[in-house]
Amino acid sequence: MLDPASRVRRFNRAVTSAVGALDTSFLGRGRPLGAARVLNAIGHGRSEVAEIRDYLGLDSGLMSRLLRSLEDEGLIETAAREDDARRRMAKLTRAGRREFTAYEALSNAQAEGLLAQHSQRDALLAAMDLIASALTRERVALEEMDPRCDQARYCLGEYYAELGRRFSQGFDVSLSRDPDAKDMRRPRGTFLVAISDTLPIGCVGLKGTDHGYAEIKRLWVAPAARGLRLGRRLMDATESAARELGIALLRLDTNSALPEAGQLYRSTGWREIPRFNDDPYPDLFFEKRL
Amino acid sequence: MLDPASRVRRFNRAVTSAVGALDTSFLGRGRPLGAARVLNAIGHGRSEVAEIRDYLGLDSGLMSRLLRSLEDEGLIETAAREDDARRRMAKLTRAGRREFTAYEALSNAQAEGLLAQHSQRDALLAAMDLIASALTRERVALEEMDPRCDQARYCLGEYYAELGRRFSQGFDVSLSRDPDAKDMRRPRGTFLVAISDTLPIGCVGLKGTDHGYAEIKRLWVAPAARGLRLGRRLMDATESAARELGIALLRLDTNSALPEAGQLYRSTGWREIPRFNDDPYPDLFFEKRL
DNA sequence: CATGATATCTGACTTTAGTCAGATATCTGG
DNA sequence: CCAGATATCTGACTAAAGTCAGATATCATG
Q1: Could you tell me the pTM of the whole model?
Q2: What is the tens place of the pLDDT at every residue in B83-99?
Q3: What are chain B's domains?
Q4: Which chain A residue is nearest to residue B117, measuring alpha carbons?
Q5: Backbone φ, ψ for residue B250 (5° rounding)
Q6: Distances (CA, A) of A182 to A37, A187, A237, A252
Q7: Contact flag B135-A16 (C-beta cutoff 8 Å)
Q8: A37-91 pLDDT tens trace
Q9: Within 7 Å: CB of A19 and strand D?
């Protein structure tokens, strides 16, 4: 009925008024939006004045005045940095924390309001995740992490759950050769997590072995982040890391029930090889020389 | 990983900056946002001053000044309405249409930008439709329309396509008893379309018969609008219309492959009855006395 | 320790948005 | 035709946001 651009614009209109409502509720606390935004940035852990200014896109004069007005209200304190007295740090006072908490409550209430009365919350949240990931595509950061940290374990949990859904016989981690975490840490290997504005949306592991090659394991991209070519980015980053570690040969196993993975490997220089392990789940094996 | 409120707030952040970018590009045309918004409202067919003021939520004094500034620029002309000289109508001049076209191009470019480089456009658009429908839930209007108009036919097309996907044997309209359009128009029946900000997102038909009852046909809710209790609203509105038309007994047929429909009927006072027609598709039959 | 770079602050502005009371013109119903 | 309602306009204001030039203090470097 509507062409794609009209659908996007309908979305824009809908979302603009919902977001505008949050601004209005912020104004209800008797403070201009500019000051409220600075207070909230500080509350969310941004303490350097220059960082806040940059984040909010403010002129330095305006920023200075906003800080002064928050100080006059007794909500923040500023101090020169010890290592560089030109830079200033801002932090909340006790009263400032109270005020910040009140803003947080408003934000959460608005968020709950958007979800309320929608009988398919999960679908709505999934749509929001998808759009947020798409819009922040260029800002997705790939971070090396310990595979046992919270974010990595969240990704792995989602990965296993998805395999369970995609494999007709289900998936039981304990039957698979669960890679030892220390093989996926430097210097033997590494583990990368893709973070989009605090939310992990993908991962991949590089597992060192003693057989003259390293393995790519646990490549996962959140359903909300598919279509952003994140799988390719994760693979590229892992290959770079492998080169850095002096690894010359990479192998991986996968399953034909995951056709998009196989397609990615084939289109990026991987070559199919015969089975090289006895894991019960994979039925496709690849190799790539770096 | 993130709780629901945090996911909504991540979505808010992502979307705010994307929408802010559009405002910035509008400013690039050397006109304050307020004036640009009025110009665009007129370009989109809103001609009554009061209607525009209401739509944009402007004070009457401010509105008057914005109109004046657009007139001074030579972009619009205003005139008193013939039937009521207190009210004014605004329309674009030739220069105004040019300027409006330029704004449209900016909007479309931004929309294309959001879609660009995403290899799963359809999923992204579906997510946007879902969210737009959810956010404008209270503003969904149910309008009586001729079942042969564009919007009604769009809904019916989507409805048939969905039946094709849901029925294991597919769905061929010509095999079903396609209700005659004139039976779904006053005074024999009616046809309702749910419109969410220009997009049709649901429909239902009330078909008059000569057998002492009327039938509910073609109840459809767009996938993007599920969970908003729109099906129930459409049914309620149709029952009201039926009462208005002096109809005392309603019947409908459906299929057990559409469980959510059956559940809706059962929970709103419909009673299962034996088959009352020889249509090949339905296998469940309901009746409700008004 | 002089010099240029950097971070922040201050003062003096402008623009935009918005508010509000009253003026003006027109309409509607008795 | 009159009284009250309605739609718009005008003038006089305020608040918020943003701009910009220059002042001040501090740092890094040769």
Answers
A1: 0.91
A2: 999 999 999 999 999 99
A3: 4-117 (1.10.10.10), 140-289 (3.40.630.30)
A4: A228
A5: -115, 145
A6: 43, 9, 19, 18
A7: no
A8: 999 999 999 999 999 999 999 999 999 999 999 999 999 999 999 999 999 999 9
A9: no
